[in-house]
Design brief:
By secondary structure, the protein is mainly α. The chain has one domain. It is 71% helix and 0% strand. It starts with 5 loop residues before the first helix and ends in an 8-residue tail after the last helix. The model has no long low-confidence stretch (mean pLDDT 89).
């Protein structure tokens, strides 16, 4: 039976925390903008995005060989929320199907959303880089993906 070391657990804890931070930021934004009912409203995007992020994280956790690719996918979800959710959706752009409020309170909601996406963008990329360095130090080819 193999023992799990803290070095094995650390990436799981780091990435799990990043997923939780992303979801919490999205939940705070949703509650500030739409109230508690917005948490359960499919059209706010909270439930589907969190479901997708958690599912990708669980796959990443259990499919070690797919970690580089799944980490990039998680980073992409965070980048999507950062650029699309926190930045573009606050601008009064003509192609948006809504007119975003131009208030300090609304801006603050989007600042919170944006800041909480940074860990899920950065941590998977750092883990991917560290894994590549470990592979090279052990004389293995870096994992593709």
């Amino acid at each position: 039976m193999s023992s799990v070391t803290s070095a094995d657990r650390a990436p799981i804890l780091w990435l799990g925390s990043a997923v939780a931070c992303s979801g919490l930021g999205m939940a705070v934004h949703t509650v500030r903008e739409f109230g508690i009912p917005g948490v359960f409203a499919w059209e706010t995007g909270l439930a589907p995005v969190i479901f997708v992020q958690v599912a990708i994280f669980v796959l990443w956790w259990h499919a070690r060989s797919a970690r580089p690719t799944l980490g990039l996918v998680l980073a992409a979800t965070g980048l999507f929320l950062l650029v699309g959710g926190a930045i573009l959706s606050i601008l009064p752009l003509p192609f948006l199907p809504f007119a975003p409020a131009q208030t300090v309170n609304h801006y603050l909601s989007h600042v919170i959303l944006g800041i909480t996406q940074i860990p899920i963008v950065v941590i998977p990329l750092k883990l991917r880089r560290l894994e590549g360095l470990v592979d090279r130090s052990k004389g293995r080819e870096p994992t593709q993906g």
